[in-house]
Amino acid sequence: MAVSLGGASLAQSAGVQAAGDAGAWSNALALGVASNADTSEPEWTGQDLLGDRQDVWGYYFRGSLMGVEPTNDVRARSDGQRVDTDDGFGLTAAAGFKMDYLPLAWEFEYMFRRFSHDSYTDPVAGFVSDNDVSLHTFAINVLYDQSNLLGPVGVYAGGGVGFRLSSFSFSSGSGGSESSISGDGLFIQAMAGVTVTIDPNLQLYGGVRYTDSGKIRNEFLEVDTAAVGGEIGLRVYF
């Protein structure tokens, strides 16, 4: 009886030992797996912070045709009379870059504008006619530009600052002698409009602009170059 009980005790003890060893190996294996797990931080991308990439982005060229309407009349400096201005036209060409994760763009732009004013009789200069104002402006623009906001239709808005080269040519006096005024100065503008994406590399756009290049003057006349106008153009990405 004593031997039998001793055998049972030994068997029970061996079973406990085996169970303990199995538990220890299991814990060690779990610790090993945990230690080998990848605990590094996930790689950061711009999309995590800024959202989805824009549908249309990259470097681009663009050009547009404008209608120009001066906001002020020409003033005769000798007697202060106002002379009506006529609508004109403008052309723009620009190279720029639109960001991929933010709806922002910046560009360098050249603009040509021309308009005229009516003939009149100045008490000092005599009869003044054939009056054309030509403006060459160079500007850096910054735009909020969100493409494909509603289907293919997007919006843009922004402004720019730069400088202008201007000339005002006219004929004056009884003999119709040719005269001109030239100058340079600061140029500012604001713009807003809509875009229509034709494909990821091509957009149509149209909008309105306010431009102001200051005043051109001589001893006879003062020309205010501020103007508003509409434009339509094409933007090509590459």
Automatic annotation (TrEMBL):
<dbReference type="GO" id="GO:0009279">
    <property type="term" value="C:cell outer membrane"/>
</dbReference>
<dbReference type="InterPro" id="IPR011250">
    <property type="entry name" value="OMP/PagP_B-barrel"/>
</dbReference>
<comment type="similarity">
    <text>Belongs to the opacity porin family.</text>
</comment>
<dbReference type="InterPro" id="IPR003394">
    <property type="entry name" value="Porin_opacity"/>
</dbReference>
<feature type="domain" description="Porin opacity type">
    <location>
        <begin position="123"/>
        <end position="236"/>
    </location>
</feature>
<protein>
    <recommendedName>
        <fullName>Porin opacity type domain-containing protein</fullName>
    </recommendedName>
</protein>
<dbReference type="Pfam" id="PF02462">
    <property type="entry name" value="Opacity"/>
</dbReference>
<dbReference type="GO" id="GO:0015288">
    <property type="term" value="F:porin activity"/>
</dbReference>
